[in-house]
Amino acid sequence: MEGDCLSCMKYLMFLFNFFIFLGGACLLGVGIWVIVDPTGFREIVAANPLLFTGAYIMLAMGAMLFLLGFLGCCGAIRENKCLLLFFFMFILLIFLAELSAAILAFIFRENLTREFFTKELKKHYVRNNDTDVFSSTWNSVMITFACCGVNGPEDFEAVPPVPHLPLVGTTPEACCQRKLQSREGMFVNKDACLAGSERFQNRQGCYTVILNSFETYVYLAGALAIGVLAIELFAMIFAMCLFRGIQ
């Protein structure tokens, strides 16, 4: 009977560690994508030290979970007490680190404010210059989400004009309405938009649009994080039970 319980515990331990292995692989993949993303998303992340640090923390945590999930699977199948103890200690440290990071993220969530993004936009945006990564990224965001600036077109009144280029109005063409929301989409009326006609401009700020778009995903990410913590907790319990059961 005891042997059957030990065998059941071993395979449950393997199953939980397999999920940790997959979770680590997903975090590792997302972290790498954020850092090396060729579309310029990394430039927006780099502009905020909190986001920049978070990307590397995600990368490090994903790599550690990937490795520890692999070690936990090996320790369970081979019934190696050394590997199981090593796994338990490190998964405990990761569990506490993730819990601390979640608490800190909740406390400092107010850092990602309208004021911060508005300041960065006015400081770094170079209008329709697609050779500038920051400006090109903002243009892509505004076209994709049919929005303009952080708060609205008025954000661009303080953006200096590009030297040697004529300036028809303060609104960039990325804020102009299109029949299809893509760079290849035809403008509804580009000339009227650039001349200041509000009828042909996207008037809503990107901060509100994106916040509303990703509100559902924020709760999904929170639920996923709670699920990962629960899996890690059960994995530690199974690891210690298996450790004690091995002769």
TrEMBL record:
Gene3D superfamilies: Tetraspanin (1.10.1450.10). Keywords: Glycoprotein, Membrane, Transmembrane, Transmembrane helix. It is a multi-pass membrane protein. It holds the Pfam family Tetraspanin. It is found in: Membrane. It comes from the Eukaryota. The chain crosses the membrane at residues 12-36, 56-77, 84-108, 217-243. GO terms for cellular component: plasma membrane. InterPro entries: Tetraspanin/Peripherin, Tetraspanin_animals, Tetraspanin_CS, Tetraspanin_EC2_sf. Belongs to the tetraspanin (TM4SF) family. This is Tetraspanin. The lineage of its organism: Eukaryota, Metazoa, Chordata, Craniata, Vertebrata. The gene is Tspan18_0.
